[in-house]
């Protein structure tokens, strides 16, 4: 089984990504049903078209501006990395050499990228597959539940449905909280950087919001980008970028994440980070992206197994007494 998972890592992760996307669509459909009493199919169509339309609108109206800013951001980060590397070499912290070589070593230490997302074409193909799988599952989730349950012994099917419902409930809450955190962090970062006169505030706000989906590592990457761009414009902007970063992380760490943990499953930050490193090293970017929901699903499943095991002796005793 382990060997099969390793060899089939790419398609399995695409399927898991589709399941996570289906949970997002299902959660939006259920939420819309509270205010719009129409059929599930219509609500799912509205949620899907709204999400795809919003992404298309962003790329259509802001794509050219963000592409130019991405190139400027790359040049700024490279220049700041060269300065930092030169300073570290002067004080003897690193050996003489090219900062690009050090960057490649750091990237290799994080883990290899899978071939499915190793290129732009692969990334687009993977995204489309995840989108299609997610839509198919969200259209009729019970069909796929019954398909999996059919392969299990009869005595385990009720338990499977119970665990599946609990995992789905947890993931809906977890992903909804992630989306709220992404929106709050993105807007707050943009507003703070814009007020402080930091260049590319809109792009940095967008990247911060997107990277907020990846706990721990996403915050580190967005912080490095934010501070690099800030100091490229001046010391005052760099200090303001640092203040913005800590303000955003405090809001996320002390307000948003604790609320999400109370409503879903309490995941220790060190455990999440360890799972991200392991999944990222084994399965590349998709593994890193999906480590958090996979870990939450595993924890909820184990908790439900433990509850079921504790309940079985009581049921046996009750039947014996009867």
Explain what the structure shows.
The protein is mostly helical. Helices cover 85% and strands 0% of the residues. The protein has helices at 2-7, 9-33, 40-90, 99-110, 120-139, 141-149, 154-195, 201-211, 217-233, 235-263, 269-283, 285-321. α2 (9-33) crosses α7, α7 (154-195) crosses α12 (285-321) and α8 packs antiparallel against α9 (217-233). The radius of gyration is 23 Å and the shape is globular.
Write the layout of secondary structure elements.
Elements: H1 2-7, H2 9-33, H3 40-90, H4 99-110, H5 120-139, H6 141-149, H7 154-195, H8 201-211, H9 217-233, H10 235-263, H11 269-283, H12 285-321
Structure summarized in a few sentences:
By secondary structure, the protein is an all-alpha fold.
Structure classification: mainly alpha
Number of strands: 0
Strand content: under 5%
Which parts are unreliable, with pLDDT below 50 for 5 consecutive residues or more? 106-118
| Mean pLDDT rating | 77
The H-and-E topology, N to C, reads as HHHHHHHHHHHH
Helical fraction: over 70%
Return Rg in Å: 23 Å
Shape: globular
**Total helical elements:** 12
State the end-to-end distance: 42 Å
What keyword list fits this structure?
mainly alpha; 322 residues
């Amino acid at each position: 089984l382990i060997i099969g998972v390793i060899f089939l890592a790419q398609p399995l992760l695409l399927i898991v990504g589709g399941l996570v996307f289906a949970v997002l669509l299902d959660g939006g459909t259920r939420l819309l049903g509270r205010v719009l009493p129409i059929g599930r199919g219509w609500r799912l169509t509205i949620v899907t078209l709204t999400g795809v339309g919003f992404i298309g609108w962003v790329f259509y109206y802001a794509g050219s501006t963000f592409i130019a800013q991405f190139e400027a951001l790359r040049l700024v980060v490279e220049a700041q990395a060269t300065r930092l590397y030169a300073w570290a070499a002067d004080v003897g912290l690193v050996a003489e050499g090219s900062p690009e070589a050090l960057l490649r070593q750091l990237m290799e230490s994080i883990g290899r990228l899978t071939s499915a997302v190793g290129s732009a074409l692969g990334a687009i193909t993977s995204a489309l597959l995840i989108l299609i799988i997610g839509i198919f599952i969200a259209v009729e989730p019970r069909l796929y539940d019954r398909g999996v349950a059919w392969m299990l012994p009869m005595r385990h099917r009720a338990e499977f449905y119970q665990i599946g419902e609990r995992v789905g409930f947890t993931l809906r809450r977890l992903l909804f909280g992630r989306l709220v955190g992404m929106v709050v962090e993105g807007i707050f970062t943009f507003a703070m950087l814009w007020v402080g006169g930091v260049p590319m505030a809109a792009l940095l706000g967008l990247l911060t919001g997107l990277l907020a989906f990846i706990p721990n590592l996403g915050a580190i990457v967005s912080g490095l980008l934010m501070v690099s761009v800030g100091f490229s414009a001046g010391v005052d902007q760099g200090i303001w970028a640092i203040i913005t970063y800590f303000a955003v992380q405090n809001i996320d760490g002390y307000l948003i994440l604790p609320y999400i943990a109370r409503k879903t499953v309490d995941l220790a930050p060190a455990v999440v980070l360890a799972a991200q490193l392991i999944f990222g090293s084994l399965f590349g970017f998709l593994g890193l992206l999906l480590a958090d929901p996979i870990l939450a699903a595993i924890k909820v499943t184990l908790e439900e197994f433990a509850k079921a095991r504790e309940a079985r002796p009581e049921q046996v005793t009750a039947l014996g007494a009867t």
